[in-house]
UniProtKB/TrEMBL annotation:
Residues covered by the Pyridine nucleotide-disulphide oxidoreductase dimerisation domain: 346-445
UniProt-listed PANTHER family: MERCURIC REDUCTASE, PYRIDINE NUCLEOTIDE-DISULFIDE OXIDOREDUCTASE RCLA-RELATED
Binding site for NAD(+): G176, A177, G178, P179, L180, G181, A182, E183, G266
Family, per entry: Belongs to the class-I pyridine nucleotide-disulfide oxidoreductase family.
Swiss-Prot/TrEMBL keywords: FAD, Flavoprotein, NAD, Nucleotide-binding
Active site per database record: H435
Cystine bridges: C41-C46
Protein name from the UniProt record: Dihydrolipoamide dehydrogenase
NCBIfam families listed in its UniProt record: PRK06292.1-1
Cofactor(s) of this protein: FAD
Length: 469
């Protein structure tokens, strides 16, 4: 019998944060994982996708250079070199995570699959038993592949397999226009792949604001074929290609043949094999554990959740935060403290980037927008497009934002910090805005919020520069 204060199941981002937090609080810990292969972010998520986007950005810059009078000559994209660099850099990121496993105290890392045999007891597949004061479930998620795309061969991929391709596809269908699907579809298209992006819904990258959705959809449509509001089916042809068919409620129908299909319809929590009934925790109708997102505790039990398996906020910074909360509370169980969560914050690394922060327009008293279609700095750089929407309460305090604009990943951070700190539109306008920058563009929306909330703008400190340009 192995005895410890806290047992953590899963060595991804959330699990590592939970183990570290629990050990930092003085707990004896064990970390259980079947492979210790690294985090989802490094292996098949954030980092390899951004490496592909970086290659696509380089190709796009070459393609756009002539508009500035720069003539680089014919461009050739070497697909094998793109994918080789991607994997080399990805493996470098993975190595850092794997090295962190070596730094764990001796006996902490246990290789195997765990299942509950009681609320505070786990059994590994090799028969070893673990008795813990508290247990953190951080088993992550796996891609969901809808029935029409199952069993059609290796050319139907998920992000778990996409990055192992030796070369870029020739013709690619991307099923699912969520943030990752939109990112990868645009990146592939800019690398010379003929791409069709399909989704049953009407929103791209989960855009909440109609103006943002329209702007992002228009941008993507310049690079690829975008088909929304359709149901899809597929069949494997004798030559190994995949025929995808689609139909919409409005009578639209079509089909095309593709060398590859990327299914990006989301990920599901990995809960199978855990024998959750033995843990004593309550489950919802879908078999998902019920937990408090401020404590990550399941009911009043010594079981905690963290990361993608919690299906609450499946992004890396939230997984790390949830792991830390779960680990600290597991270490001090039965004492459990609530922790304030970060403001809701997501980014899709499309071009332009899109983001959602805090409350949506429907939950705010005031919503004002700024048009980036003719914004000064954006026009200088040849990327004047998009829109930024800022939402506020009746007194002008910022409560959320939605955007699709050049420099959006940086604008989104500034707005997320402002929302989380409780800043007002007037307070932001009193901050320095350098000229000419993309940040100046948000002044239009901030001034409109001041006007509609009846709050006074601070005295202008601009000297001769066009405000908001």
């Amino acid at each position: 019998m192995i005895r410890c204060d806290v047992a953590v199941i899963g060595a991804g981002t959330a699990g590592l944060a939970a183990e570290r937090a629990a050990r930092g609080a003085g707990a004896r810990t064990v970390l259980i994982d079947p492979e210790f292969n690294g985090t989802l972010c490094a292996l098949a998520g954030c980092m390899p996708s951004k490496l592909l986007i970086a290659a696509a950005s380089a190709a796009h810059q070459v393609e756009q250079a002539p508009r500035f009078g720069v003539l680089p000559g014919p461009m050739r994209i070497d697909g094998p070199r793109v994918m080789t660099r991607l994997r080399a850099e990805r493996d470098r990121f993975l190595s850092f995570t794997r090295e962190s496993f070596d730094d764990l105290p001796e006996g902490t890392a246990l290789v195997g699959r765990a299942r509950f045999s009681a609320a505070q007891r786990l059994t590994l597949e090799d028969g070893r038993e673990i008795e813990a004061g508290a247990i953190v479930i951080a088993t992550g998620s796996r891609p969901v592949v809808p029935p029409p795309f199952r069993d059609l061969g290796p050319n139907v991929m998920t992000t778990d397999t996409l990055f192992e391709l030796p070369d870029l596809p020739q013709r690619l269908a991307v099923i699912g226009a969520g943030p990752l699907g939109a990112e990868l579809a645009q990146a592939m298209a800019r690398l010379g792949v003929r791409v069709t992006l399909l989704d049953s819904g009407d929103a791209v990258a989960k855009a909440r604001a109609p103006a943002v959705n329209a702007a992002l959809g228009a941008a993507l449509s310049e690079d690829l074929r975008l088909i929304l509001g359709v149901e899809t089916s597929a069949e494997r042809l004798e030559n190994g290609e995949i025929r995808v068919s689609w139909t919409g409620e409005d009578g639209r129908a079509g089909q095309d043949d593709f060398t590859h299909v990327l299914v990006a319809t989301g990920r599901a929590p990995v809960l199978s094999g855990l024998e959750l009934k033995a843990s004593g925790i309550d489950l919802d109708e879908d078999g998902q554990p019920l937990f408090n997102r401020l404590t990550m505790q399941c009911g009043n039990t010594p079981v905690f959740m963290a990361g993608d398996v919690a299906a609450d906020a499946p992004v890396l910074h939230e997984a790390s935060s949830e792991g830390a909360i779960a680990g600290r509370n597991a270490a001090q169980f039965p004492k459990v403290d609530p922790f304030e969560r970060h403001v809701f914050f997501t980014i899709a690394f499309t071009d332009p980037p899109s983001a959602a922060i805090g409350a949506a327009a429907k939950d705010a008293a005031i919503s004002a927008s700024a048009d980036y279609g003719d914004q000064g700095r954006a026009r200088v750089e040849g990327r004047a497009r998009g829109v930024l929407c800022i939402h506020a309460d009746p007194g002008g305090r910022l409560v959320g934002a939605d955007l699709c604009a050049p420099g959006g990943e940086h604008l989104a951070h500034q707005l997320a910090w402002a929302v989380q700190s409780g800043a007002t539109a007037a307070q932001l306008l009193d901050m320095p805005f350098y000229h000419p920058t993309l940040e100046e563009g948000m002044k239009t929306a901030l001034r409109e919020i001041c006007r509609r909330s009846g709050t006074s703008e601070p005295p202008s400190r601009d000297v001769g520069s066009p405000s908001g340009s």
